[in-house]
Amino acid sequence: MGALKGIAVRLRALLRPAAADRDLDDEIALHLELETAKNRGLGLNTLEARRRALAAFGGVTRVREEHREARGARWLDETVRDVRIALRGLRRGPGFAVVAVLTIALGIGANTAIFSVLDALLLRPLPYRTPERLVTIWNHWDGNPGGPGSVSPAEFFDYLDRVPALRDLGVYARSTAILGGEGEPVRLPTAFVSAGALRVLGVSPAVGRLIDPAEDVPGGPSAVVLGDGLWRRRFGGDRDIVGRRLVIDGVPATVVGVMPPGFRLPDDLAQTDAAELYLPLRLARDSITIRGSHFLSSVARLAPGTTVEQADAAVAALASRLTQEFPSDYPTKMAFGASVLPLRDSVVGAVRPTLYKLVGAVGFVLLIACVNVANLLLARAESRRGELAVRTALGAARGRLVRQLVVESLVLAVAGGVLGALVAVAGVHTLVALRPPDIPRLDAVSVDGRVLAFTLAASLLTGLLFGVGPALRAARPGNGLALTLRAGGRGAAGEGRRGVRRALVVSEIAIAVVLLLAAGLLTKSFLRLLAVNPGFVVERVLTVPLTLPAEPYAEPARAVAFYRELTDRARVLPGVQAVGAVAGVPLVAERGDLGLEIEGRPVAPGDQKPRADWQVVTPGYFRAIGMRLLRGRGIEATDGPDAPGVVVINETMAHRYWPDGDAIGRRFKLGGGAAPGWVTVVGVVGDVHQAGLGAPVEAEMYLAHAQFRFWGSGAVLRAMTLVARSDGEPTALAGPLRRTIAAMDPTLPVGTFRTMEELRGESVSRPRLLMLLIVTFALVALVIALAGIYGVIAYGVAQRRREFGVRAALGAQPVSIARLVLGEGLRLTVVGIALGLAGGLALARLLGGLLFQVRPADPATAASVAVAVAAVALLACWVPARRATRVDPTTALRTE
Question: What phi and psi values does residue 695 have, to the nearest 5 degrees?
């Protein structure tokens, strides 16, 4: 008990030193009064009694210092005093302070902004119950790799029933649906989920319940769970929403629950339009015969005591057995397999390499900032040699001087950190506002307490990094008073000191060159990407997505008639040159593939069946999008449901499957029972980069909307995108098209009108964002490096004023003096460029996966960076060189 009381007293003394000092003074005063009273009892007068009491006590000041030392307050007082001295010194040199703080703020701000993204994506757990136990199944096969969680319905039941290592397994698919019934119909992102998908994630509804297994079967009760945003926006957060009947895609559905705020499915973490309706998937276990349709995302929870490696082995073994049980669905040459991947890797795996490269880039920026501030501190220490020498002569210990200089560095670092936090807030807000696609959990990125703690730690570490070296060098024993006075009091730096600062400048230039080389490669790659011919004409094209509800468009004839009438009406609108509809707009919607059976070309056992990506189009689409018709004809109005099946293929498909002759007139059958079954090739069109400008072109076929029916269900494609080519500004067509759609069906919600130029811009937004960030960091590093070389050359000119004055007095021409100064700057620059290019070319290999049609060791980029850095470095050296040529010999010699 006594020990705890003693600890409490010491903590109170340390945290409240003023109160502790008052208590000590009261105790000393009481002791002196008692001792004085005792002496007066011996017959001494008051003055003598007080004097003997003080003599016996041993000195009040000494006792106070001993007590303060014992409770640890002395170091606090000295630290506060050091901070005050540092602030006064910085006020005397505001230019130095401003440059140093801004330099640190740029480095700390960039690192804090990127750390906030790193924290949200990689360090924080996923927003699900025990997320470390969640996994997804990844199907893969040679030549046609699947995505994380991409499984077919039949494989879902296989994994559910035959893999005990997975305790729970759920699947879901993203789509859109039309919400009607109450208020204006609206088209909403929708998730069709199995009954176990939401429970696997451990989500609890905010209101009501989740989808029951009894509702997740064909013919089961219709049910829907609302997203929190939709519930609040459309229904005012009414908690009595459960049991209300809504109309979804023309079919009544009962609201059974509301999801909690902020909930997103794993696939939605990287989407701007997260699902707002959750409907039962209703897979029919007994009637599923197609195993090749991989469109379901999976999420599973590991069984207790099971590791990811054990689950991966179990799933891989089952995939191997499936290839033996269903050889026609999984040919040997298809090399089908399956893996188990932690859910976090599935969510953030695609952006992790890019994020790590950004972390490396901002780390270089912070490093160059530290080097530059260290250079500034060395120059500042040179100007303070006299002050430090005098303090040493008066008895100041070397450790005391080092601590004072380090505290000054920490003050600069903390000030830069505070400003850097503001820079980071602005950067994070800009990043979130840009909303680059495919970056998961972007809404969780913020500058919060964790990020601010990182900022503080980074600031203190940065202060030590750039402060300790200069402090130790400035306070070393060789800097005595006599040596300083013999140097004439000028604070002139020795050759060794100038060598250290030159080495720091060389390192700054080298780091800047590394970042500039990365920026140059990414910029060249991005320009090459923009120069890719997409296979269609981007200009003056307007698009709008439409989704017809199941009622009254369940009958295929009604959906086909709607799109036919819509394109006919739109075609005669003023300003419309051509109009059509497509299932997936190029650069935006990546399509799946279908197996084919080519007439007269049987597939040998174990061989992989021919496959091609599929598209569905209406007449007029090829002209509206500006695709080239190479041979034959396109899809026409005569290609109706009762006409023979036709197909238009792209050039890649024609060369792949008919390399020795013309594909026109050849026939093949669509796999999986998709209608119209057998189709005849009637045309060949140019290749289109469907999955993105940087993605390879795949074999692709274009089927007539009036003829195509889904495999299994026989349903018509109701979700299409209208594409219209204008003879002027494409956005001017939005109003007339909207009115045309409303005239045909007032209850049909219309999607967002977008031009193809906008869609192309969005398709390259990720490489553009990466390029802009790296270019920004590289320019910041270059500016800091140029400030460093300017500072070293300018300081050297100031220190050599007498030398330049003597040279001028002896007849040296201004050109020769300028050449001398520029030569020194050029030597530093050349060495820095050489080191930077060597390091940059070695590190550029890490960018290989981010470059498009550009080699990491690109000589043109390296040469451009070298020339650019040399040019701006010479420009930075020109000002001090010009100043050196204007030194007045008389004035320079007189000041000496």
Answer: -85, 145
Quick one: tokens of 425?
């807030």
CB atoms under 10 Å from CB of 237, counted, come to 13
Least Cα distance to 280 among 209, 217, 203 occurs for: 217
Q: 108 with 784: CB under 8 angstroms?
A: no
- In terms of Cα–Cα distance, which of 619, 741, 609, 620 is closest to 671? 609
pLDDT higher at 415 or 618:
618
**Residue 775 is encoded by which pair of tokens?**
């270019």
Beta strands at 207-208 and 251-258: parallel, antiparallel or unpaired: antiparallel
Q: Are 800 and 892 in contact (CB under 8 A)?
A: no
Band of the pLDDT at 123, cuts 50, 70, 90?
confident
Residue 388 burial (CB < 10 Å; 0-12/13-18/19+)?
buried
DSSP character at residue 119: I
Nearest alpha-carbon partner for 241 in 206, 280, 276: 206
Backbone angles phi, psi at 806, to 5 degrees: -65, -45
And the tokens for 447? 């500058």
Distance CA 410, CA 404 (A): 10
User: Do the Cβ atoms of 35 and 53 come closer than 8 Å?
Assistant: yes
pTM beyond 0.70, yes or no = yes
Q: How far apart are CA 701 and CA 718, in angstroms?
A: 19
> Can you tell me the distance from the alpha carbon of 758 to that of 777, in angstroms, rounded to the nearest whole number?
27
To which H or E segment does residue 668 belong?
strand 667-670
Q: Is the pLDDT of residue 375 over 50?
A: yes
Q: Could you identify the residue written with the tokens 């059976």?
A: 597
- SS3 of 766-831: HHHHHHHHHHHHHHHHHHHHHHHHHHHHHHHHHHCHHHHHHHHHCCCCHHHHHHHHHHHHHHHHHH
Q: Say whether pLDDT at 894 is over 70.
A: no
How distant is the alpha carbon of residue 726 from its chain centre? 36
For residue range 715-727, list pLDDT tens digits in order: 899 999 999 999 9
Q: Which of the 8 DSSP states describes residue 203?
A: -
> DSSP assignment, residue 604?
P
128: helix, coil or strand? coil
What does the CA dihedral 403, 406, 412, 417 come to, rounded to 10 degrees?
-110
φ, ψ of residue 381 to 5 degrees: the values are -65, -35
- Phi first, then psi, for residue 258 (nearest 5°) are -130, 135
The values of phi and psi at residue 93, to 5°, are -125, 70
User: Strands 337-342 and 134-140, how do they pair?
Assistant: antiparallel
Q: Single out the residue of 102, 115, 781 nearest to residue 420, CA to CA.
A: 102
Other Cβ atoms less than 10 A from the Cβ of 107: the count is 32
CB atoms within 10 A of CB 264: 21
Which residues fall within 8 angstroms of residue 78, CB to CB, at 6 or more apart? 403
Give the pairing type, strands 678-685 and 134-140: unpaired
The region, left, alpha or beta by phi > 0 then psi within -120 to 50, assigned to residue 677 is left
**Residue 176 identity (one-letter amino acid):** T
Find out whether 341 and 136 touch, Cβ atoms under 8 Å: yes
pLDDT band for position 79 (cuts 50, 70, 90)? low
3-state SS assignment for residue 726: strand
- Range 3-8, long-range pairs (CB < 8 A, 24+ positions): none
The C-alpha angle 809, 812, 818, rounded to 5 degrees, equals 120
Among 509, 495, 516, 515, which residue's Cα sits nearest to residue 372?
A: 509
* Backbone φ/ψ region at 540: left (φ over 0), alpha (ψ -120 to 50), beta: left
8 A C-beta contact, residue 217 and residue 249: no
Pairing of strands 667-670, 754-755: unpaired
